[in-house]
Each structure stands twice: as structure tokens, then as C-alpha cells.
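It is worth pausing here to work through a concrete case rather than discussing structure prediction in the abstract. The textbook approach is simple: state the sequence, then state the predicted structure, then interpret. We follow exactly that order.
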Amino acid sequence: MGFVKWVPIIAAYLGIFFIVYSFAEKAPYYSFTKDATSATKTEYFDYIIIGGGTAGCALAATLSASAKVLLLERGGLPYKNPNVTHMMGFLSTLGDSSPSSAAQQFVSTDGVPNQRPRVLGGGTAINAGFFSRASKKYVEEVGWEPRLVNKSYKWVERKVVFRPQVMGWQAAFRDGLVEAGVSLNNGFTYEHLQGTKIGGSIFDRGGNRHTAADLLEYADQTMITVYLHASVHRILFKSVPGKKPKAYGVLFRDSKGTNHTAVLNDIPSNEIIVSAGALGSPQLLMLSGIGPGHHLKAHKINVVLDHPMVGQGMSDNPMNVVLIPSPRPVENSLVKVVGIVDDVGCFIEAIGGFFASGILSTDQSLIQSTLIGEKVARPFSTGYLELRSNDPDENPEVTFNYFKDPRDLQICVKAMEIIGRVVESKAYSRYRYPNTTFESVMQYTLELSRKQQTNSLEQFCIDTVKTIWHYHGGCQVGRVVDSDYRVMGVDSLRVIDGSTFINSPGTNPQATLMMLGRYMGQKILQQ
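Step two, the predicted structure:
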């Protein structure tokens, strides 16, 4: 992808900018956040949460209200890295391939480059910031309690969400969506509503990023410990004949290679909760002996539970984009406006300026551009995840099977047709050159992507497919975990994160993942 090559250009372009802004907001450092090298050999807790990501931070903060909690995160703090803390570092973070990068790069077997978070705050520390709730229909389908869901969203929103300022080309994009038939204009709202809307953002008006790690400010500091650079190698189980295997602890390794053990206090309600993400959670279950028996044996892993559905149902919402050169300056902007087209099954979003050009090209002359993209909301195509090795720090092998189901391709075609109407709309005319057509920007995008020219929208979708980083599955509800997120077939173990989703919620899942951490934390404390 083009943005990987942008890193040295970005560094030069933004060096002075970051000196000024990297400390624009005082970072919320915590007395309970420590490097894992400070951990003792064995420690005891009521709840052990593996993964300090989008759901894990909210979950840990909530459980600490009345329990002793350990949160283990394989990455570091988000607050010391200016590429993470400010909007202008978005592309730099995604393009950073260093071992300490907040975004660990991987490529699916489909050949599509991708990233997974490796930092406290998870995906909220590396994403484009858009915040929008799941639809009421989604909440009903999943079986969540609407009142508690609403309270949990508000708990998140008070801490990390802001109303973005929409002007210039973003306003033109909003009006172009309405003109293209994506109506009504719903104005600013967190709710999932058919039509065009302005959503929330985890970037404040100064461009400073607020992440799920900020939710730890809600935690009881006397009841929580967070270990950073803690790589969990496996979950430990007790096996008694005639009973289910029971999780009782975890083995983790610090950055110096020293092993540590965290063990549950001997209380029946205490649990280990995996919140390591759609790649990390099924990977860790397999490394711990829960997964397809034949696959585990091939990696010489002792089988605790032959669970064939672990790693299945992997899905990544395909994204396709077009780049539109502008005759006038456009502000550097990430996602603020979305078109929700539920009857087609797609979402349409846009970014502009520095970010738009960096997705496709290293040509600095293209900075004066906008990029409009579509996301297939609920892909029918699914794949699977398997271990590549027994090293938890190595990416597993994942296949998403983009467009394997032809229904996804038809959704993409219809969505691109809507984008075509936006590009050619009167409202968007100030941000395209005269005589620009959707056909011309489609061919231009193919050229930048180094793909063969085609007039077929189907072929365009196939040839230019990208990730929008909303991949999910691998530990799905009803297949690996029950409706309370308990792993079926073992005791004292849950999975609470995006790996449990059948479909990705809303236009962007981060809002619902943070909500889910809060929601399930309260449910667990009530049980």
C-alpha cells in the first residue's frame, strides 16, 4: 500500500508540527500502569484480562470497582508516541514496520495488507477516529439489554468522544451524498440512522487522539494493575476427570524474556477474560490448547479441548475507494461524515488532503485530493485463522475470502454507483476539476493502484479491494462462546472483543467495542 512508503516524507513534513503538538494535552499516566519487567514471579487476582484494547480497557476499569484486576497488554503506552497522539500521525503509525510499532503489519493470504494494534488502547490508538453506535436492530439481534447498552455508550462518550467541525469539502461531501439519494440529512448524531450524518470522533478539535486507554481513568487505582509489554504465551488449565477443564492462570513473558505467572484467587466466580482482538483471541485459545484438535497436534500443542469452530468465521469488511483530484485546497481530514445505505448494505465515507493521497500514492503533488470509499456492511464471505507458529508474537495466518460470495460483489457495485453520483453531484463540483466524471476518477485510481484499466465495476472492486480494519470473528457467539461470552466446554474463561462478532456493528465498530467492555463488566459484577 502506498502509505507505507510515505513514512520518511511524513517525518520531514511533520517534524516541527509534532514538536509543537505532541504535548498539546497532558497524557493520563497511571500509578497502576507498569512495565511487565516489574512483575513478580507469581501474582494473584480476581480477574485477569488479556489485551488492553478497545474492549479490554473499558472492561478492566469497570471490574476494578469491586474486584482485584490484572490487565495484560503486549504493547506500550499510547501517550509517548506523537504519531499515535495526534491525527496527523495516522499514516505514519500504519506505515511503521518496526518491532515496537503501535500497528503490527500483516498480510492475509488474500494478499491484502493489513494492521493489528499493539498498544494500550488497541485499535482506538491507530484508527481514523470515527465514532458511531450500533443500530437498534443490531442490539436486538445480539440480545443485549437496550437500557444498559445506552448507559454504557454514554459512559464511553463522556470520556473520549467529541463533535467534529465539518466545513469545506466535508460539507460538500455531506451534501453530495444527500443529492445522490443517501437521504435524509440527519445532522450530527451518534445514532445509526439510514441516510447521511455527521458522527462523533475520538479526535478533539485540536486533533489530539483520545483512546480506550483514557477509560482507565474510571478505574479504582487501588484495585487494578496494568502490565505493559506483557506477551501472554498461554492460558493455564486444571483438568479433573469427569469435569470441564478450568482456567486458573496465565503464563506471560516480559520484554527481557522472563516468564511470569498470574493466577486467579480461589473464588468460584473469578475468571480469565481474553480481549486480545479478532486475531489475538483465537490465536491464544489455540496456543492454550483450545481449537481444532488436528491443527493443534500438528503444532505439538497439548489439546485441552477439541473445539473446531475456534478460528472460523473470520470476516473483513471489504473497502474500495476512488481518489478525486481537487482544483482547490482541501483540509486534511479523516472521517467525519458517513452515508448509511442499509437497503443496499453499505456505508460510504471520505478522507481528504494528506490522508487521501497517502493511501494510494507517494506523489506529494496529489495532496490536494479527496478520497471517497465504500464498505460492505455485512459481508457474506468468511474465512478462517490458523497458527503459523507457536510464537504468540508472530501473526497467525488468516484468510478472509474477499468477494468469494457474489452477493458481496453486487453490494460493492451498487455502492460504487452511489459514489459515482456523489462525485458527479453539483454539491461536490467545487472539489473536482471541470469535465471530471466518475469513469475518469475510477481509471485514475486504477492507474495509481498499478492495476489494469477496466470499465467493469465488478472487476474494479476485485482488483482494488482494501481493508478498512474492521475484521472480526474467530471466537463467535453461538459457535465458540455462549451469549454471556463464556467459552463453551471450559470453566472460568470468557472472550469479550470483536472476535465474538458475527457481523461488525455500525459504520465503525470502536464505539460498540468500548460499550461492550463496559456493558459486560457490569453484567459480570451483577452475576
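Step three, interpretation. The first strand starts at residue 33 and ends at 35. Residues 406-423 form the longest helix (18 residues).
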